[in-house]
Amino acid sequence: MFDWTFGFGKRALRNEILTRRLMLSREANAEYSRRIAEHVAGMPAFIDSSTIMAYWPFRNEVDTSLLVRAALASGKRVVLPRTIKQERRLAPHIISDAERDLRPGAYGIMEPLPDLPEAKPEEIGLVIVPGLVFDRAGNRIGYGGGYYDRFLPQLTRAAKVAVAFSLQIVARVPFDERDRPVDYVVTEDEVIDCRAERGAP
User: Fold this and answer.
1) Structure pTM?
2) How many CB atoms lie within 10 A of CB 118?
3) Using one digit for the tens of pLDDT, what is the confidence trace for 34-60?
4) 149-170 per-position pLDDT tens digit
5) What's the longest Cα–Cα distance across the chain?
6) CB 72 within 8 A of CB 123
């Protein structure tokens, strides 16, 4: 892969990939999202997990609502994050209905109602992690708030799975000790085992 990211900082990479993603057509988004959802639903970590955490899509992201609905239909317990902006943290609420239980949250993204019960982080078996830019080692650039970098260490049992279009994968993502990598990145074309790419056990 040609390393066109050389010399790019996080902000420049974030802006470049966001622009590319927003240019993706509705038809391409739908087809790629369907393929990504099929890949994730076939992963052992998804099949074996009784509690799945995801998020609702926003600004031409991968359509994670497909995974939310598939998990609910299969009888899994489904958790979505609610952003508590003043505390800069995520609260993992359990939903049972993808329409009735959600409303726009702090950033305009659909989030669970605050009176819904919360899941314990250690109960979550798989978490779908958002992001704008990824490399094959699982390093990621998010939206700049650091919410998931603070939240992911609490998930002691969860497989950490990012879903992204292939256009969001670059040769190298700049990172530091505060950034939390994911275990897998799933695109419309492949399931990348980032732990193997990092040489992790």
Assistant:
1) 0.91
2) 13
3) 999 999 999 999 999 999 999 999 999
4) 899 999 999 999 999 999 999 9
5) 48
6) no
Residue 166 near residue 18, CB atoms below 8 Å = no
Domain count, the chain: 1
**Can you tell me the distance from the alpha carbon of 169 to that of 163, in angstroms, rounded to the nearest whole number?**
11
Which CATH number fits the domain that encloses residue 27? Answer: 3.40.50.10420
Helix axes 65-73, 26-41, angle to 10 degrees: 40
90 backbone φψ class: left, alpha, beta (φ>0; ψ -120 to 50): beta
CB neighbourhood size of 63 (10 A): 18
* Residue 87, in any domain of the structure: no
Instruction: From 135, 123, 138, 130, select the one nearest 181 (Cα to Cα).
Output: 138
Task: Tell me the one-letter amino acid at 163.
Answer: V
> Residue 118 is which amino acid?
E
| Alpha-carbon gap, residue 199 to 56, rounded angstroms | 32
Reported as type and span, the H/E element at residue 126 is strand 126-129
d(CA 163, CA 18): 15
CA distance 50 to 85: 29
Taking residue 150's Cβ as centre, other Cβ atoms within 10 Å add up to 14
In a domain? residue 85: no
Fill in the amino acid letter for 21.
R
Closest CA to 168 of 13, 55, 6, 8: 13
